[in-house]
Design goal:
Layout lengths: L6 E4 L5 H12 L3 E6 L5 H8 L5 E5 L5 H15 L4 E4 L14 H29 L2 E6 L3 H4 L5 H21 L4 E8 L5 H4 L3 H10 L8 H13 L7 E4 L8
């Protein structure tokens, strides 16, 4: 898809990977809908419009089905149809399974997986009518290989992978591509809190011997958005941590 002048809705786009995605697509000429559970500030919007594109902020909870519909309707009322949806918003709540409460499991599933369903279903209905669209879901290497203390998070992201492949099959006839990106260890607020010892241990597991950066994830999303013959795929951005073959 030609990115210039398209409208891109990015959930969880006020920091980390989401913020990098917003800037990357804005630099490519796309109009951006910033999203988060908290109110989007004028400063955050101004950072994006500085690239010479349109930008609005839409706040709300993707885990609420009706709220997801309202946010997409607000975006359409202000900018027109959403051509590209990037389901980036997600949370972690790490603890060993034997110490995990049911609420700990359910909350992560609700935001990471159900939230992706909510946003995708509402956006896809409009894309199907337009016969064009791109959906990119943020999965994780945890959903492909599991991770200690992340039974809830890994389950949610494995669900995103299966969801992506199924929706890709359903949407392909209308020219809509649906793919997932599975980041590995990326330098964000989530990894910043790790101790130096843990960082050293994890780097040893990565063939490229370093953490990735948010721009490398954003570059992958731009590639997927522009390529109209790739769908139903999971692209690992992980320095070689997970090698399928």
């Amino acid at each position: 898809m030609e990115i210039k002048d398209k409208n891109v809705f990015i959930t969880g786009s006020t920091r980390g990977i989401g913020k990098a995605l917003a800037h990357a697509f804005a630099k490519a000429g796309a109009n951006i809908i910033l999203n988060g559970r908290s109110q989007i500030s004028d400063e955050q919007v101004a950072e994006i419009t500085a690239h010479g594109v349109k930008c609005i902020g839409v706040s709300g909870d993707i885990a609420d089905f009706d709220n997801a519909a309202s946010m997409l309707a607000e975006a359409e009322a202000n900018l027109g149809p959403v051509h590209i949806l990037i389901n980036n918003a997600g949370i972690t709540d790490d603890k060993l399974l034997i110490r995990m409460k049911a609420a700990d499991f359910e909350e992560v599933i609700k935001i990471n997986l159900t939230g992706t369903f909510n946003m995708t279903q509402h956006a896809l209905k409009k894309m199907m009518k337009l016969r064009e669209g791109v959906i990119i879901n943020l999965a994780s290497v945890s959903g492909l290989m599991g991770n200690l203390g992340q039974a809830n998070y890994a389950a949610s992201k494995a669900g995103v992978v299966g969801f992506t492949k199924s929706v890709a099959r359903e949407a392909a006839a209308r020219g809509i591509t649906v793919n997932a990106i599975a980041p590995g260890f990326i330098e964000t607020d989530m990894t910043e809190v790790l101790s130096d010892k843990v960082k050293e241990q994890t780097v040893e597991q990565i063939p490229l011997k370093r953490y990735g950066n948010v721009e490398e994830v954003a570059q992958t999303a731009l590639f997927l958005a522009q390529n109209q013959y790739i769908t139903g795929q999971v692209i690992n951005v992980d320095g070689g941590l997970v090698m399928n073959g």
